[in-house]
Amino acid sequence: MIGFHIKKIRKEKKMSQQSFADKLSTSSGHISDIENGKKIPGGSFFISLKREFNVNINWILTGQGSPYIIGEDGKLDADPEVNELLDMTRAVIKSDTGYARSLKANIRSFHDAVETQSRLDKLEQRIMEKDRSGNENGGCPPGASPAPKIQSDRGRKTGT
Prior knowledge:
Blueprint: H1 2-12, H2 17-23, H3 28-35, H4 43-53, H5 57-62, H6 80-94, H7 98-132
Helix pairs in contact: 2-3, 4-6, 6-7
């Protein structure tokens, strides 16, 4: 079953045994032996498989779940570094230590800061788009009339 699943991943990636082996820092013969059920891969192989291809090791071993690691938002996260960091974050948070409480507080603070920055960036972009469009209303919102122009007394003719 393990060999079948590994071969399925390799075929989905449209890779030869050699290119797959190169990516996993092993030999094509080793890949062939695994795919044909002659060898069972070791832990370092599984770690490389997860890191390089975002493969769900539980699926490789049991056939249950999704072949690939799925993020909490239901989308595949193809960035192995993100997955590694998420795994480490989960481990710290589950430790129920002072480090866990501190990390939770920091994550919330960073998230709030990123959300605020995103809102500011969007607002700035909207303002820049209005400036580029040369708002004909003199900066007034659509539907509003521009303020009347005030003339100084200097340029007016008097009726006397």
